[in-house]
Amino acid sequence: MSKCYRSELVGAFGCPIDENPTGVMEEAAFREKNLDYRYLTVKVNPGDLQAAMEGMKAFQMKGINLTIPHKVEVLKYLDELSPAAEIIGAVNTVINREGRLYGENTDGKGFIQSLEEEGISPSGKRVTVIGAGGAARAIAVECALAGAVKVTIINREEERGKELVDLLKNKTRAEAQFIPFLSGVDIAQETDILVNATSIGLYPDCDQKPDINYDTITSRMAVADVIFNDPNTQFLAEAKKRGAKVINGLGMLVNQGALNFEMWTGVKAPVDVMKRVLKEEFNLLG
Question: Which residues are catalytically annotated?
Answer without folding.
Answer: 71
